Amino acid sequence: MKTKKHSIKNFLELLAAILLLVGLDQYTKFLAVKHLKDQAEIALIPNVLYFQYLENRGAAFGIFQGQKWLLLGLTGLVILGVLYVLWKLPAERKFLPLKILCFFLVSGGLGNMIDRVRLDYVVDFIYFSPIDFPIFNVADIYVTVSMLLLLVLVMFYYKEEDFDFLKWKQNKEQERAE
Fold first, then answer.
1. Sign of CA dihedral 47, 50, 52, 55
2. Of 38, 120, 124, 132, which one is the catalytic site residue?
């Protein structure tokens, strides 16, 4: 059973993580604008990794170009879904990896959401050339790596019954019993 103290602790941990992670994302974007906008790309590792400024008005791989409100809405829904998972997440140690991944997912979504609201585009600046990967940013790393690790956890670490805490009917019955 979750206590009020546990919920407050979770909220404070989430707030601290978001401030740190979103702050890092926004700071790197600030540096990208300051040092890369209207400049030639910078090779960190020639033929592999570059800093290259891009104003992305779409989502991953350039989809939904110019669809700011759709992207804000989708991002908002995902963030609300992740916050719901965090709210329902049991206090057990086995769920710590899931909790951390949720922190990164929310932070990544918020980092890019801030750009869309403030600038009407997302500042991207990291380019990985061997596979001609789209230019991305720190928030994108949070989201992509978190989703990949979440997939691995769901496939190989957690069992289906570990997610019973998310089942609506069971939660309602549990709340009535308390």
1. positive
2. 124
Chain-centre distance for alpha carbon 177 = 35
Site of tokens 């740190």:
20
Nearest to 86, CA basis, from 158, 165, 178, 168 = 165
Catalytic entry in 38, 115, 132, 140: 140
Partnered with residue 56 across adjacent β-strands are 122
- What does the radius of gyration of the chain's CA atoms come to, in whole angstroms? 19
- Is the full-model pTM beyond 0.90? no
Number of domains observed in the structure of the chain: 1
Question: Could you give the CA distance from residue 95 to residue 153 in angstroms, rounded to a whole number?
Answer: 10
Instruction: For residue 136, list its beta bridge partners.
Output: 126
Residues recorded for the chain? 178
Active site residue 124: yes
Secondary structure tally for the chain: helices H, strands E: 5, 3
Q: Is 38 a catalytic residue?
A: no
Q: With residue 56 as reference, give the H or E element that holds it.
A: strand 49-56
- The model's pLDDT over 122-141, given as tens digits with 9 standing for 90+, comes to 999 999 999 988 999 999 99
Residue 21 sits in which domain range?
Answer: 4-177
Nearest to 45 by CA among 128, 125, 137, 136: 128
